[in-house]
Amino acid sequence: MAFRVRLRKLHAINAWIMLLLAVSGAMLYFPPLRALLGEGRVWLKQLHIALGLASLAVVALYLPSIGRHLAQLSKRRAQQTNLLFVLVLLAGWIGSGVVLWKVRSFPPAWSNAALFMHDCLTWIGIPYMVYHIATRTRWLSTSRHHAPPLVKLPEIRELGTYEPATGTTSLVISRRYFLKAVVGTTVAAISLPPFLHWLTSSLRDTNLNALPDAAATLPDFPQPPPLPDSLPPKGGGAAGSFRIYTVIDMPKVEKETWSLTVDGLVERPFQWNWDTFLAFPREVQVSNFHCVTGWSVYNCTWEGIPLNRLLELAGVKDGVKMVKFYSSDGVYTDAITIEQTWMEDVMVALMLDGKLIPHDLGGPVRLVVPQMYGYKSVKWLNRIEVIGEEHTGYWEQRGYAKDAWIWVPPS
Ligand SMILES: Nc1nc2c(c(=O)[nH]1)N[C@H]1C(S)=C(S)[C@@H](COP(=O)(O)O)O[C@H]1N2
Ligand SMILES: [Mo]
After folding, report:
1. Which numbered atom of ligand 1 lies nearest the CA of 400?
2. What's the pTM?
3. Which of 14, 170, 303, 324 is the most exposed place for a label (fewest CB within 10 A)?
4. Across the 411 residues of the chain, what is the mean pLDDT of every consecutive 10-residue run?
5. What is the 3-state secondary structure (H, E, C) of the chain?
């Protein structure tokens, strides 16, 4: 009996943890909920990780009992299957969760795979949990013993009963089976379409073509002629899907009022309008874009002005500390140290794969810092300020590491 009590307790604890994980995970994942969270998302992510570790502890406490438990369930195939299924789910969630948690200790390809797995298991796992809860509530599970079946026969099984008298098998549907089927179908009908939508869009090469076109979202910015390396894109076309992030309503960007300022501790500060910006020589680079949450877009062909050309033009004074980047959303900033400007691939970009950067991706002009996680790559860039003190960027103030270097292969 003590064994059963112990299992029951572990099950109850696990159920609560899973519920909290599902709620916090869903909030972190779905863009509208994510937007609602704002900066709370960093703390919620911490909580989600802590809950995940707690569920790992529960699994660890359970595992020594698994042999005995399975033996006990040997005559209950459905429960055995449920148990194994749940254990596989948990293992997958925890394993991929650890990679996502310790993202900087793994190559981006690992994080990409872990994120895909984490999401995929969630699309399967949450509907399964709903089904599991719904079909295990008392009114359903006790109906087997107390409520009369829809069709009365001496021996009732879930489905199909052999009748010795006539030698035939008749379909007998108990109330319990019927309700399970209804619940199962409903849950599947609700969750399958968005799951398939998610699956097809994550297996798609890129979401660049599916994004609202720059022509529609940035109507007054005409497409500038791309350099030969830009179109057709030297990198062969971006592979992977951007998730669209913003911490506040996306700012309106208009050509008339658009400007880029380079100022602060420089000899020759300047402010450009769109035409002056376009007149400056541009370059093309192919690089990968990695977000610290695990997704990547490979082989992006960016066209724009290397940061260093702008800094040379402005003339950086001695003794400065950082270069700070502002977004025209008025809220988002980030910075790199003056030493880190050795990176020649930090770019003030205006085209991606030969087309003006879509507004959703921070267009028409965003920063790209390919060797660091995406949060350094400020969208809707409108100001570059050279400063003499430390600056902590938007997400860094909220818990992201100031050191944003992407995992580099050990040499
Ligand atoms: N202005 C602004 N820039 C931003 C962000 C943001 O929310 N606002 N998110 C950052 C993060 S965390 C990432 S991963 C990338 C995402 O770029 P995307 O939205 O074009 O996919 O933009 C970065 N730059
Ligand atoms: Mo990110």
Report:
1. 12
2. 0.88
3. 170
4. 90 96 91 81 93 97 95 92 95 97 94 96 94 79 50 50 66 76 95 94 87 81 96 96 92 96 98 98 98 96 98 97 98 97 97 96 97 98 98 93 87 75
5. CHHHHHHHHHHHHHHHHHHHHHHHHHHHHCHHHHHHHCCHHHHHHHHHHHHHHHHHHHHHHHHHHHHHHHHHCCCCHHHHHHHHHHHHHHHHHHHHHHHHHCHHHCCHHHHHHHHHHHHHHHHHHHHHHHHHHHHHCHHHHCCCCCCCCCCCCCCCCCCCEEECCCCEEECCCCHHHHHHHHHHHHHHHHHHHHHHHHHHHHHCCECCCCCCCHHHHCCCCCCCCCCCCCCCCCCCCCEECCCCCCCCCCCCCCCCCCCEEEEECECCCEEECHHHHHHCCCEEEEEEEECCCCCEEEEEEEEEEEHHHHHHHHCECCCCCEEEEEECCCCCEEEEECHHHHCCCCEEEEEECCEECCHHHCCCCEEECCCECHHHCCCCEEEEEEECCCCCCHHHHCCCCCCCECCCCCC
Q: How far is CA 107 from CA 100, 102, 377, in A?
A: 11, 11, 20
CATH 1.20.950.20 fits 2-153+173-203, yes or no: yes
* CATH 1.20.950.20 in the chain, residue ranges: 2-153+173-203
Span from the CA of 272 to the centroid of ligand 1 (angstroms): 23
The architecture that CATH gives domain 214-398 is Alpha-Beta Complex (3.90)
* CATH 3.90.420.10 placement within the chain: 214-398
Give, for ligand 1, the residue of 350, 379, 384, 397 to mutate: max count of ligand atoms closer than 8 Å to Cβ: 379
Amino acid at 102: K
